[in-house]
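Supplementary Note 3. Input sequence used for the single-chain structure prediction.
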Amino acid sequence: MANFLLAFLLLLLLRLEHCYGEPMASYEQSSMLISAGGQHKRHRRLGLLFPEWVAAADWKLLADSDLNPDLVVAQDGSGDYRSIVEAVAAVPKERGGSTTRFVIYVKAGVYKEYVEIPSSMENLMMTGDGIDATVVTGNRSVKDGYRTFQTPTFVELIAKLNRNCDVHSQTQFYRNCDVYGTIDFIFGNAAVVFQNCNLCVRRPMSGQKNTVTAQGRNSSDQTTGISIHNSVVAAASDLAPVQGLFKTYLGRPWGNYSRTVVMKTELGDLIDPAGWLEWDDRPPPDTLYYGEFMNTGAGADTSRRVTWPGYHVINNSSEAEKFTVGSFLSGDSWIPATNIPFTSGL
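The predicted structure, written as discrete structure tokens, is reproduced below.
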């Protein structure tokens, strides 16, 4: 189950072959609200600019206070369609071969569906009523027989990647984002930093355990890993009343060289004292690297953490510095161009 921000979705739906000129991707949370009169009111941090690869016509669309959508989705029947899936399916017919940006406005509501954007469907923009108003939700899981990539509630299929974009996708920066999930809801094998983010753990299915991360590094030569910096890990509203019934861990190793560091982050009391979990009860590889540095909160006590060879309580800032935006992502060389605020060091 996941909330997602439709207002900023254009940056995510642009084909990867239009990658930004630096080998990185960065995201900052923004929100768009719709007044009772239907007028868009953007609430965005001052000075936030779009990367150079976003065409002028596109960022004008995003900034337009009177955006005129091509299709409207509304559960109450006041729009063109009642579901996002129906609207997406209608795009080819509605646009009639046009290559200009096609805008779908999704009104406030909880949409229980799984939206898939075909790779052939370019120049599609979606906007909604804000992160807490326009919500797409679902309950697919591996336990029910679905593959991991069949579980997201919103997916864009990528037909092709050029060589540069394949490399570019391996470095990511997220700032001021709210991320919700249950099992392995931050996973993969990129070099990624979550800074000033809220990682909200939801209630899992009966008998399941929550794991925030599942990092997939599988070679010592890879410069990938997950760094969680100056953030908050806490129970979401559906888990908080019953969190004693479910164990929650910071992560588990998806690859033999899995690497995850949590630093200067507030850990709620939902975190199990062991901190980290084996993968399917298999002994963890000695080659993983899990670290914690100067965390706070009821879940930050490391005295009862796992005793794996690859687990580290980081006691010196020079070691922790390796996992900052400046060092781990070389962020000083590319993030300033996006005008997204960031902390380079600890």
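The first helix runs from residue 10 to 13. The chain has six helices and 23 strands.
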